């Protein structure tokens, strides 16, 4: 039975165990880990997530061996949203399609982010995860 990738589980636990007053600071550190768009990839190749308050685009690719690669595009002036992408980029690196699909939909609530950021932002993060999982599901067949 697949489960959430170990790296993502560790990130979730780290946030869940952190004192409330440092959660936002920890979250914003992930805004810096979003890699730039790969060469040859254009924003037009990605799916927009309209639930986000800022322009946010993503794509998931499932390789023949079942490994998932994620691509995110989000402006630097939207650090919270970029942080959601950073957590997924780092936490899902090298994950299988089954592991990605096994990520709980309430990931950000489990991390304790609902107490640290606005419900609107949590909804945006949840929408990012949902679209990512949908793309993986469609490709994994």
From TrEMBL:
<comment type="similarity">
    <text>Belongs to the SufE family.</text>
</comment>
<dbReference type="Pfam" id="PF02657">
    <property type="entry name" value="SufE"/>
</dbReference>
<protein>
    <submittedName>
        <fullName>Cysteine desufuration protein SufE</fullName>
    </submittedName>
</protein>
<dbReference type="InterPro" id="IPR003808">
    <property type="entry name" value="Fe-S_metab-assoc_dom"/>
</dbReference>
<feature type="domain" description="Fe-S metabolism associated">
    <location>
        <begin position="14"/>
        <end position="135"/>
    </location>
</feature>
